[in-house]
Amino acid sequence: MVSSDPWSIREQDFPADATRWEQLRFILHYAALAPSSHNTQPWKFRILHAGEGVELYCDSTRGLRVADPDRREMLLSCGAALLNLRLAMEYFGPRVYTTLMPDEDEPDLLARVDWGYRALGDAADRLLFRNIVWRHTDRSPFQDWNIPQHLITELQQEAAKEGSILTFVAAGEMRNRVAALIASGCERQTEDPEFRRELADWVHPNWSEVEDGMPAYAFGMKSYVASAVAPIVLRSFNWGKWAGREMAEMAAAAPALAILSTAEDRPAAWLAAGQALERVLLRACAEGVRASFLNQPVQVQELRGELAAAANLQGTPQLVLRLGYAFHAKATPRRPVAALLC
Ligand SMILES: Cc1cc2nc3c(=O)[nH]c(=O)nc-3n(C[C@H](O)[C@H](O)[C@H](O)COP(=O)(O)O)c2cc1C
Q1: Which of 46, 115, 126, 207 has its Cβ near the most Cβ atoms within 10 Å?
Q2: pTM to 2 decimal places
């Protein structure tokens, strides 16, 4: 019996003798574990009737109206879920074929993934699959250990497999300029009470049983009392100057700061970049490297160009990642697969 909590999934429980439909339902537990902005989990899945494949839809009712009006981060998040789906289908079955945006009359239908016939057995992707259940966003300070050059190169290769570019920002003057833009982005966002209200709606006390959003422990708040007060503080005060300064310090001191960018800036590129993101996070996780996000200068549209110039980027920035070694992250909730089917 498979638990309804996607984090409890165990590969040894794969129903090898069941129908393809039931096998795909099992596999969707791995898709559900993908990261998403504010942990909105903005995805839905339709298992095709004979179990030949799965369609991925974005769930527009779960969008962030203020922080993500263009649905850019929604598609990045769905891209991460798509990568998990592809990895898991190939891990348990034959090679898959993915079609992005298969129906231009249906913009919420983001991808269709079909099982083929030939076994692939890609060892590198099997390693990524095994790390789906271990990956968590870690916002705590990182150890003062360098990330080896070979891993930096491999992370860039993983991003390139999905047509995206991962640029590492060297410590020093360039890093400080990027850090200043992170602080500036944070300050600008929190000036808007609607932005703070939306964020507060997705932050929950530690004891909450809500199956989406971010428990306050994900931001380092271990105390139950502090976690209960967190949404009220987020909503009621402009904390941007303080938080921006702290984020900038973290960015400047991180063992690695990387920016994921794409040649184009449209829905298909966002979906591809989400897949690249998940490849990078899973490959990093396999080496004990954790990540957190410092996307403020991408989310504030006016700062995007400045970020690209400050970091000498190719293409348009999509995400800013802080990478390093840490041991603190705990899983955040996920909705059960039954709630994701359409
Ligand atoms: C596209 C995208 C954007 C994100 N942006 C931020 C961000 O700006 N700040 C942040 O702290 N976390 C950010 N996150 C991390 C999510 O909050 C996190 O994935 C979610 O809460 C689920 O937690 P988990 O990654 O530990 O499973 C982002 C994640 C994604 C996929």
Answers
A1: 115
A2: 0.97
